[in-house]
Amino acid sequence: MGILLLAGTLVGCGSSGQSADSGVGTVAEPGALPVTIQHRFGSTTVTKAAQRIAVVGYSDQDFVLAFGAVPVLARKWADYDVQSWEQPQLRGASLNLVDLGSDSISPEKVAAVKPDLIIGVYSGMTQRDYDALSKIAPVIAQKGEYIDYGQPWQEVTKQIGAALGQPTKADQLVRDVDARFAAARAANPQWANRTVSVATFSGNELSVFGRQDSRSRFFHALGFTTPAEYDRFTGEKFFANLSLENARILDQDLLVWDQMSYTPGGRATITANPAFAVLAAMRDNRAIYLEGEAEKAFAWQTVLSLPIAIDAIVSQAEHALPKR
Predict the structure, then answer these.
(1) Under a CB-based contact definition with an 8 Å cutoff, are residues 242 and 205 in contact?
(2) How far is CA 234 from the centre of its chain?
(3) CA-CA distances (angstroms) from residue 6 to 3, 117, 214, 215, 291?
(4) What does the alpha-carbon distance between residue 17 and residue 92 come to, in Å, rounded to a whole number?
(5) How far does Cα 176 stand from its chain's mean position?
(6) Does residue 93 contact residue 21 with C-beta atoms inside 8 Å?
(7) Residue 163 region by backbone torsions, left for phi larger than 0, else alpha for psi between -120 and 50, else beta
(8) Which of 177, 198, 225, 292 could form an SS bridge with 256, CB 3.0 to 4.6 Å?
(9) Are 142 and 121 spatial neighbours (Cβ–Cβ below 8 Å)?
(10) Terminus-to-terminus CA distance in the chain, angstroms?
């Protein structure tokens, strides 16, 4: 993807005596199946409750786990273990983590686990990928109205929930997380219509997340707005690389430095950089830094990770932009 923008990923397995690729199937709500799911490449009809779910999206396993199922395959990438919020949902099972490639999704590796449903909403799937995977099992891809990796978590939850035959539970999961955002927003009315920028700096590459990215939407749910000017830089992508000369666009009411684990030297690298030091948000201590579990949970943006992200990030934002 040109930049490590999907931090906090898993490559490890939970301990279990269960076969790694046996998985746990879903139990459909009465009358929920069959169902036809609309997506970027057309539509897919799911006729029965899936028992062998292959996940080819980068974080879609969280949504599958939230509905009580365990996939027979999850996508392996980067160098993180199974996340803390996933462990309780595994209930002693393990994840069969498979490297499916980065430029395309390996249909051979997916076919090897004999899935009866393939989920790839947060995968950046191409038409070629979809055509190949559709020969193996029904495929759920992202909706057509969103950019790659830009479908809101609410829509991902409902789309996957419908495919698994649990639309009522999907609605409840969304309501529960939305209620957390609403509570934080109500407790901090000073954030209403204040501007925010979410950026990452690798030491030599500066990037900003666009208005359609889930990270920006996270702060929108807290009352913030992202400048429309960002669209000029991001276009149809969820992020844009910036020259240091354009670092000025990061100077908003709240500046969020994300993916600090990928910044060599950590905060000191950012605070010592002259291009950032001149920003009012930096001088006035209106910058926050996402590290550790907060960074991972923020990157995943799922119904399982968001409660952790909300608790951690709201406390930092309250310190940076307190009530007056």
Answers:
(1) no
(2) 18
(3) 8, 24, 11, 11, 14
(4) 8
(5) 17
(6) no
(7) alpha
(8) 198
(9) yes
(10) 41
What's the CA gap between 192 and 182, in Å, rounded? 12
pLDDT at 21: 65
Q: Is 2 exposed, middle or buried (0-12, 13-18, 19+ CB in 10 A)?
A: exposed
Query: 218-222, long-range: CB within 8 Å, 24+ apart, which pairs?
Result: 218/298, 218/301, 218/306, 218/309, 218/313, 219/254, 219/256, 221/178, 221/181, 221/185, 222/181, 222/184, 222/185, 222/188, 222/191, 222/314, 222/317
DSSP three-state, residue 1: coil
Cα angle, residue 196 at apex, residues 63 and 183 outer, rounded to 5°? 55
| Residue 176 Ramachandran class (φ > 0 left, ψ -120 to 50 alpha, else beta) | alpha
**Nearest-angstrom CA–CA distance, 118 and 114:** 10
Task: Please say whether the beta carbons of 239 and 245 come within 8 A.
Answer: no
Scan for tokens 């307190």, then name that residue. Answer: 322
Q: What is the mean pLDDT of each run of 10 residues along the chain (324 residues)?
A: 38 38 90 99 99 97 98 84 91 92 94 98 97 99 94 98 99 99 98 98 95 95 96 88 96 98 96 98 98 95 98 98 91
Report how far residue 131's alpha carbon sits from residue 135's, in angstroms, rounded to the nearest whole number.
7
